[in-house]
Amino acid sequence: MARKPRVYCPGALYHVICRGNHGPRILSDDADRGRYLELLQDTRLRCDCRL
Question: What sections of 1-51 are H helices per DSSP?
Answer without folding.
Answer: 30-47
